[in-house]
Design goal:
Distance between the termini: 69 Å
Number of helices: 6
Largest sheet: 2 strands, antiparallel
Radius of gyration: 20 Å
Structural class: mainly alpha
């Protein structure tokens, strides 16, 4: 049996929790007491790949591209390799900037303005661009299925454009 030492933690493959095994390409290892006392609690995080040795994750990296670097992910309690930790449709970084809890699917930004997908209180070019990008298959930080059909299409694009034109 191979034993690896990572950030002061002994990892034996036969005793790894099932949840970590399920994440074969990425796992997190807690910080050591020495790292915590040095003021760097997230230094113990590692990216573990099936193709090589663990690699230390840099503080300023944002591997899931959700707008939060690893240190911010650690502080927020979100997953550094998943853009939407609570699966509510809003990326973690977006929720933090809007003041909602990125770890709770019951806490998410909202707006009373139809077509305001970024929940800033108005329909702008940014809202239109988000819907168009989603319709083109690109990943976006906010839910853009305005008509609730389960996919983003030309009707959603038309809805957000009309909403932008109706601004008083």
């Amino acid at each position: 049996m191979t034993t690896r030492h990572v950030s002061g933690t002994i990892m034996r493959p036969s005793v790894l929790p099932a949840a970590i095994i399920a994440l074969a390409c990425a796992c997190l290892v807690g910080a050591t007491a020495q790292e915590e006392s040095a003021g760097n609690p997230a230094d113990g995080w590692v990216q573990d790949t099936a193709f090589g040795a663990p690699k230390a994750v840099e503080w300023d990296e944002d591997l899931d591209q959700d707008g939060l670097d690893h240190y911010q992910e650690f502080l927020a309690g979100t997953h550094p390799f998943v853009a939407d930790s609570d699966e509510d449709g809003f990326w973690d970084g977006f929720e933090v900037t809007r003041g909602t809890d990125p770890t709770s699917p019951d806490s998410y930004p909202s707006s009373e303005v139809l077509g305001d997908v970024d929940c800033d209180g108005q329909v702008t070019a940014a809202d239109i661009q988000s819907v168009i990008n989603a319709a083109l298959g690109q990943k976006v930080a906010v839910p853009t299925d305005l008509d609730g059909t389960g996919n983003v299409d030309s009707l959603d694009i038309q809805t957000v454009i009309n909403a932008a034109l109706l601004v008083p």
